[in-house]
Amino acid sequence: MELDRAIARDSPIHRADPRLKLVATVATILAITLVPVGGFAALVIAWAGLTVASTVAQLGPFRLSRGAFIAAPFLLAAVPLIVVRTGNPLGSIGPFTISGEGLVMFATIALKSWLSVQAALLLTFTTPFHLIVDAMRDLRVPRILVGIVSFMVRYLAVLGDEATRMLRARAARSARAPGGRGGGSIGWRARVTGQMVGSLFLRSYERSERIYAAMQARGFEGTFRHLAAQPVRAEAWAVFGLLLALLAGYELAAHLVLPRA
Amino acid sequence: MTTHSHPHDHADEHAHEHSHAHAHAEPMPDADAPEADPSRWIEVSHLHYAYPDGYEALKGIDLVVARGEKVALVGPNGAGKSTLMLHLNGIHEPSHGSVRIGGTLVERRSLGRIRAAVGLVFQDPDDQLFSPTVRDDVAFGPLHMGLDEEEIHARVERALAAVGMSGFERRLPHRLSLGQRKRVAMATVLSMDPSVLVFDEPSAGLDPRGRRELIGLLRALPQTMLVATHDMRLVAEVLSRTVVMDDGRIVADGPTDRILADATLLEAHGLEAP
Q1: Deepest of A134, B79, B182, B233, by most Cβ within 10 A of its Cβ?
Q2: Which residues of A touch B (CB under 8 A)?
Q3: Residue-wise pLDDT tens digits, A186-235
Q4: In terms of Cα–Cα distance, which of B161, B158, B192, B164 is closest to B177?
């Protein structure tokens, strides 16, 4: 189990400054979010842009499009819009009337979330997680948050290993008498699982105490210190500026020029 | 579970924390300082320690170690080895008695200096390596000592070279093997340039090759060394003096050959000859 989803490739996007990449990702998601309802032409352009980026990053053109479906379950929250919005009835299912406006709104939200997840995936596929954490710190995200994320990155894998070992130990002892029914009742299983979660929590708690002692032993006194960050290179600023200008132009076009449904 | 992971002892550690925000600026103990006597580099006197729940882990420890000496700390689980080690750089505060390192009393005022002088290497490298990358972790100690960047980079490089892990700066700790993580854990304290190294079970869990490498490394390091271990072959090969602990007390202290030859003593304290 690991948080790091970076795919090692050599591409301009991989080499880009993580701080600028992080800001550019947030700006891209913002630009997608601000596209007006029904601005499908604009959303198709955004998808084309992300597909090009995916290709440039040597991930294959549709890697992001496919990967972004993981967020599909969250769309359930937007489903009621189809019947809650009024106007232009298209038909009805039982007591519910499907509205055309509601359908357009749902489709817009669905596409926007799908595209936003793609933008976030582009960042995580091309940037090792610890560099994202460093970037957050350099961008003055509150230290306590950065600290939490940093420890999570480091210890999720350790915790995952511990959980795996416990599951394996349980499996090794989950025998079945010849002819008997194995596995026990649902209640029994639930109790065993609960005990495992509890013991995992205790182990993590004890580990946290040992980690804290190890930090103190090396002079930690309550505030994190870090090596100074490298300055952003001039060319990187130029590319970043160009990208922001593109996003601004895109936004204007989405509102003023491109057709809407 | 070893005693240093005792669940109730963090309240007083927080107290340490906040009262000494600036201790790191003080200089390290110095061999040339008038009070430093190389023959009494580590000096533990009448040390008693009870955990907050009343469990008495140390019942009067007296121990003197000369500069450059390499000492094994052996004894059954629960003998108090880890608790003693945590006193050497002030993670625990004695209930009675005192600890001096290079003539400096371990107390709240001197914690910054003491922690730079005593490098503690914990048993599980996953506890010691808490930063996202190897470099961040090896730089952690020097950074919190308040050194300047150039010096920190130089120390990181030197420490990794000393444990044979040069070139691993950007690697992630959880992608390294146990042996590699143990070596990086050593580098994280070597980068602080300590005069004393304290190891908790350094060979636990290592395969034969990892163990050989570790033994070579321990022999090569010039620092004063205190090693808590159950690995009697490591003791025989690396450490010239052996201290046997049992039930919070020191029950024997002498040259390793003599201690390891005393089968009755070893048997009485749950140990075995190599």
Answers
A1: B182
A2: 2, 4, 128-130, 133-134, 150-151, 153-155, 157-158, 205-207, 209-223, 225-228
A3: 887 788 888 888 988 999 999 999 999 999 999 888 778 888 788 888 88
A4: B164
